[in-house]
């Protein structure tokens, strides 16, 4: 990709041309790994993720001299929190209707301040250094926030999901990789069958590494349906795709042995389509207004 792997603004501050009160984003993975604006935080000792997030966002508020909005997706408690953080380090949670106005103009401004493609490059850089846990957490954070802002079927959301599937494969988490890749394939099959075969092939490559028989059967039936639909439309033009379709059919019908396959390659962004909600996109509950872990009084910042 032609974009720089380093943030273009010192300290990862918003671009000077960004609108005031740009909404920042933070993410807490199920294991407590914490991301703010596409950067994995160093969580030394037993520092709670909520305190690390509040300190990081407060630094933005002090640098800008104005309150800063933030959206926190916390997978550890399956919640979304919307915050106001002030230059003095204090903070409060707000209701969804108090959040910054939604819409394409706001989304464009936020993504101009913190370009998603720069985050993709950072993820790839971690993967190239074999820092696969960091790459996976960052990919999950990017996919979650893009999905929240743009929807699961948006081009950038799909690219993030495909990269997350690839990193999961590299980590040996074939169940997660299969689920993510299948969602990408499902969306492509619903939007543009002429471009669907490579995505179904990537999902099949991950599926072939599964050992759990229930997963093999459930996921395999969906893959077989995709391959048969592509075949019926005359869209299986690559010999390798014919071979993969036959492999799926054989494993389901006769029980093929565990198969070695090369890892799927990262994929480009995909077009939009209306699809069913994937398990990783199960809606998160909004936090209660004033929830203690994201509410901090004046002078409490450690930043």
Low-confidence stretches: 1-11, 14-20, 256-261, 266-275
User: Average pLDDT, to the nearest integer?
Assistant: 82
Number of strands: 7
Task: Give the overall shape, derived from the CA principal axes.
Answer: elongated
Instruction: Kindly provide the radius of gyration, computed on alpha-carbon positions and rounded to a whole number of angstroms.
Output: 21 Å
Could you characterize the architecture of this molecule?
The chain has 303 residues and is α/β, with parallel strands linked by helices. The chain contains nine helices and seven strands, in the order βββαβββααααααααβ. Strands 1, 2, 3, 4, 5, 6 and 7 form a seven-stranded mixed sheet that branches. It is elongated and about 65 Å long. The two termini are 35 Å apart. The model is unreliable at 1-11, 14-20, 256-261 and 266-275 (pLDDT under 50).
Topology at a glance:
Blueprint: E1 23-28, E2 34-36, E3 39-40, H1 49-64, E4 68-74, E5 79-85, E6 91-93, H2 104-113, H3 116-128, H4 132-150, H5 155-171, H6 174-191, H7 197-207, H8 213-232, H9 239-254, E7 285-286
Parallel strand pairs: 1-4, 5-7
Antiparallel strand pairs: 1-2, 2-3, 4-5, 5-6
Q: Characteristics of this structure?
A:
single chain; 303 residues; alpha/beta; seven-stranded mixed beta sheet; 7 strands; 10% strand
In short:
This protein has 303 residues and is of the alpha/beta class. The protein has helices at residues 49-64, 104-113, 116-128, 132-150, 155-171, 174-191, 197-207, 213-232, 239-254; strands at 23-28, 34-36, 39-40, 68-74, 79-85, 91-93, 285-286.
């Amino acid at each position: 990709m032609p974009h720089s792997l380093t943030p273009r603004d010192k300290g990862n501050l918003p671009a000077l041309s960004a609108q005031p009160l740009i909404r920042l984003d933070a993410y807490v993975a199920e294991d407590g790994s914490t991301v703010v604006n596409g950067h994995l935080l160093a969580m030394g000792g037993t520092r709670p993720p909520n305190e690390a997030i509040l300190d990081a966002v407060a630094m933005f508020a002090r640098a800008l001299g104005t309150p800063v909005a933030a959206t926190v997706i916390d997978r550890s408690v399956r919640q979304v929190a919307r915050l106001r953080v002030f230059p003095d380090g204090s903070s409060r949670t707000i209701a969804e209707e108090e959040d910054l106005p939604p819409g394409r103009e706001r989304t464009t401004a936020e993504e101009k301040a913190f370009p998603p493609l720069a985050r993709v490059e950072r993820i790839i850089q971690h993967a190239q250094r074999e820092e696969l846990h960091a790459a996976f957490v960052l990919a999950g954070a990017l996919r979650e926030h893009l999905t929240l802002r743009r929807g699961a079927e948006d081009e950038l959301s799909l690219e993030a999901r495909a990269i997350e599937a690839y990193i999961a494969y590299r980590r040996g988490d074939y169940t997660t990789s299969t689920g993510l890749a299948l969602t990408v394939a499902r969306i492509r099959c619903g939007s543009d069958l002429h471009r669907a075969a490579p995505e179904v092939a990537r999902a099949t490559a991950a599926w072939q590494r599964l050992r759990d028989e229930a997963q093999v059967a459930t996921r395999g039936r969906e893959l077989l349906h995709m391959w048969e639909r592509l075949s019926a439309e005359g869209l299986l033009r690559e010999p390798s795709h014919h071979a993969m379709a036959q492999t799926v059919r054989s494993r389901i019908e006769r029980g093929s042995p565990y198969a070695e396959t090369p890892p799927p390659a990262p994929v480009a962004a995909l077009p939009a389509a209306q699809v069913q909600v994937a398990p990783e996109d199960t809606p998160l509950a909004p936090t209660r207004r004033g929830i203690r872990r994201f509410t901090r009084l004046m002078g409490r910042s450690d930043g």
